[in-house]
Design a protein that fits this description.
By secondary structure, the chain is mostly helical. It has one domain (about 15-300). It has helices at about 1-35, 45-65, 70-75, 80-105, 105-130, 135-155, 160-175, 185-205, 220-245, 245-255, 255-265, 275-300.
Length: about 300
């Protein structure tokens, strides 16, 4: 009876975790629609507002969950503050490239970047941690490299938007593990550290008359205020889901976001997708299938 109750509890937790993660990835998938709505505002200003308005959202969540103890410890630790400042800077760069790319009709490249991200994490594990790649992972990384080479020749230059997004997000994930606090506390600490320079930048823009946060532009004010929830909510949903799900399940679900982004880029924004681009994406998808299979095979072994 106890075993059955325990298994039922685990199943219920997994279901909740799945719904949290599904909501997060779906939210990230449709996020380009919102980013297109703020596309007339400079990317740096949008990112600054993402940071500033994420602080109250993240703070309220921490208070509601009663998870402020770890945060207090981190605020008294110079090492934690330094690492949080580094990870915050990296994710800010990632956000800036993403917001700019959506605004200038390069959403397909952002989708490619987040498809490449898990494979980039594998490469970073091998380079930075000395992790050995199995044969399937080597094949997957090779196919991804071939796809990047094909897209480079096709575009006449490296697909830097895709690579920059993949590298910064993978590096963020790698360094984020060094923070000895939970995901929601870590997110709040990061935006808290960034909030002072972000707020100073916003005030400078408003003082010079270049800012968009004015009562004469009520639509822009509403959109910029929404930057906080749009940034914080999916990250918090993901954090809750990650605690309740197996890593392999999260690994499979992470492709939901870029898949939705790709569909929106092609069918809503009207970006080009065909020919050489389709070949490049096909190689990436094949690499992801092989990579995912290698993970599932190792888990079942």
């Amino acid at each position: 009876m106890t075993v059955q109750t325990s298994s039922e509890g685990a199943a219920a937790a997994a279901t909740r975790g799945f719904l949290f993660a599904l909501a997060a990835y779906t939210f990230w998938g449709v996020q380009p629609i919102f980013m297109k709505m703020v596309g007339h505002i400079p990317a740096a200003e949008v990112v600054a507002h993402r940071i500033v308005w994420s602080v109250p959202v993240g703070g309220l969540v921490l208070l509601a969950l009663g998870r402020t103890a770890d945060l207090k410890v981190a605020l008294r630790s110079p090492r934690s503050l330094l690492m949080a400042a580094v990870t915050a800077s990296i994710i800010t760069l990632n956000w800036g490239i993403y917001v700019w790319a959506i605004a200038v009709d390069r959403a397909v490249e952002t989708a490619l970047g987040y498809y490449i991200n898990p494979l980039m994490s594998v490469v970073m594990g091998a380079v930075l941690l000395g992790e050995k790649l199995n044969r399937l992972q080597i094949v997957a990384v090779g196919l991804a490299a071939l796809a990047v080479a094909i897209l480079t020749v096709y575009a006449g230059g490296l697909p830097w938007v895709s690579l920059a997004l993949a590298v910064t997000f993978a590096l963020y994930g790698y360094l984020r593990k060094t923070l000895p606090i939970g995901p929601s506390q870590g997110f709040f600490l990061e935006v808290l550290i960034l909030s002072l320079p972000a707020l100073a930048y916003i005030l400078w823009l408003q003082g010079t008359g270049e800012g968009h946060f004015t009562m004469s532009l009520p639509d822009d004010v509403a959109l910029l205020l929404l930057c906080g929830p749009v940034t914080a909510v999916p990250l918090l949903l993901y954090a809750f889901g990650a605690k309740l799900l197996r890593l392999s399940t999260l690994g499979l679900m992470q492709y939901i976001g870029p898949s939705i982004v790709l569909l929106i880029a092609v069918f809503v924004f009207g970006e080009q997708f065909g020919g050489v681009r389709a070949v490049g994406f096909g190689l990436i998808w094949a690499a992801l299938v092989i990579y995912t299979w290698s993970i599932l095979r190792n888990r079942s072994a």
